[in-house]
Amino acid sequence: MEIYPPIEPHASGMLDVGDGNEIYWEVCGNPDGKPAVFLHGGPGGGLLPVHRQLFDPDAYRIVLFDQRNCGRSTPHVCAEGVSLEHNTTWHLVQDMELLREHLGIDTWQVFGGSWGSTLALAYAQTHPGRVTELILRGIFTMRESELRWEPARDLLPDHWERFTEGVTGDVIAHYRRRFADPEPSVRLAAARAWARWEMVICNLIPDLSPMDDEFALSFALIESHYVVNRGFLEEGQLIRDVGRIRHIPAVIVQGRYDLATPIATAWDLHRAWPEADFRIVEGAGHSGGEPAVAAELVAATDRFR
């Protein structure tokens, strides 16, 4: 099963969500179709045109948005003097509700991969009455055990060594200091290293393709902000509170050899939520763009259309 052909939005705009922030949103597919909202990864990753292609455009009203301070949302994290003080999981949950109301949607399907799965779970557990179904890929819940890059550092020692070159003490704290350095070249070099490591572990075959500097900065600065603050979640919160959403039809898609969000987390979620359809994709890593993973995701959206 392949993804759907490329499509363009038939509506888009900027939504004022408070705190001086505006988020970019777009709607694709059938204006009268079943509403679904796509949550991108990162945090800080932003939207890609391919994200629109995971839904049948004849059946779905597909809503996508750039989360705070990344993509086309403003102010961008790379702009001078921008603070992430008002960029938390709960701000993003609130933004989703404002966008839903702005578009006149009563309930919608929620689709999230990687960090998007974190946000999807947080949103659904806060607003279960607004969610018709959940489609989750590459499960990430911000527990301490998920923030040590195991087993990635053991399977990719060469890349880990490059990522941690010159690091003394805690890796995350070291990078946060470099991201706060007044010298732009130091910040950019650190962001490139952070984003490169993430891109390497996000694919079964490490991705070493050139990377846009603005993307590297956006991804690294926002993701590290969330990691340092443990996603603004209590330890184990999203799995602990899964009882709030066990009645919601759901599909969980997980690559067997995912190094970015190892399968142990998806397994823990599956054990807490046996009603959800749990799909392990053999021979696949983390990326939703891997053909076998994408096929499972399209099968899930097709099932719920």
From TrEMBL:
It holds the Pfam family Abhydrolase_1. The keyword Hydrolase applies. One of its GO terms (molecular function) is aminopeptidase activity. InterPro entries: AB_hydrolase_1, AB_hydrolase_fold, Peptidase_S33, Pro_iminopeptidase. Residues 37-287 form the AB hydrolase-1 domain. Belongs to the peptidase S33 family. This is Proline iminopeptidase. It comes from Nonomuraea roseola.
